[in-house]
Amino acid sequence: MKLYIAVGSAMLVVMTLFIILFVAFYQNRQVRHLLALNELREANRKELMEATFQGQEAERRRLARDLHDEIGTMLSVTKLSLNQLERRLAVLAEQPINGGVDRDESVDLELSTQQVQKTRALLDETMSNVRRISRDLVPTTLERFGLLAAIEELTEKASTPDITVTLESPSTLQRLTTAQELMFYRIAQELLNNAIKHASATLIEVQFVCIEDAVRMSVIDNGQGFDYDDVVKDQRSGLGLRNIESRLSVVDGHVTFDVAPGRGSRVHVETRSH
């Protein structure tokens, strides 16, 4: 009887161990499966986000090309026609009054000349805005001269008599991919726009620092700040911040928002160099 009890107890212990090992193996397998599934989802999400941003950049290029090739050309032709009209009016205005142009017609010519000059000024402003929008859509300076030159140009354009935007950076940056440089540029655009339009900042500093194998960009302003949680919850106002995080996820970067209502903001964007 004791032998049977001992054998039965041993079998029970073995079965218990077997069940424990089976449950542990099953749970471990489930964990590995979930991890693999999450990795696959993350990879698919990154591919989707990357494709989305590539599509956006392609659309920006198309719009910039249309603005330059079509709208820009039409404006240039219109300006040439306007210049010809202005020269013709100037010739008519120089004719003596008794030579075929009476006083009323002379006054009309003068008013027409002034109107042409105003129209040309508006046309010049429109052409300038078209060029500016085209450059904003496709940062040619970034493609030709690199990230620091493009950011320097961006800070100079953002500066006004009432707003000071400065750039502090090393002479060169660690090697970055084209996608990383474009990511830094677009995020800098977004943060400068937020600081000027929404935070009413008058002093903004853009800093670049190389940290071991990473590059960090900080945008610091003296604006009125904001509540991060409240902004992110808003579908419209939080779109820019969510876009920043989405862009960084594609290049394995991260962002830190040091913000609060009533004080200046500090936003740090970092990604590994290659």
UniProtKB/TrEMBL annotation:
Residues 66-274 form the Histidine kinase domain. One of its GO terms (molecular function) is ATP binding. The keyword Transmembrane applies. Its EC number is 2.7.13.3. It comes from Fibrella aestuarina BUZ 2. It is an enzyme of class 2 (transferase). InterPro entries: HATPase_C_sf (IPR036890), HATPase_dom (IPR003594), His_kinase_dom (IPR005467), Sensor_HK_TwoCompSys (IPR050482), Sig_transdc_His_kin_sub3_dim/P (IPR011712). The chain crosses the membrane at residues 6-26. One of its GO terms (cellular component) is membrane. This is histidine kinase. It catalyses: ATP + protein L-histidine = ADP + protein N-phospho-L-histidine. PANTHER family: NITRATE/NITRITE SENSOR PROTEIN NARX-RELATED (PTHR24421), NITRATE_NITRITE SENSOR PROTEIN NARQ (PTHR24421:SF10). Keywords: ATP-binding, Kinase, Membrane, Nucleotide-binding, Phosphoprotein, Transferase, Transmembrane, Transmembrane helix, Two-component regulatory system. Pfam families: HATPase_c (PF02518), HisKA_3 (PF07730).
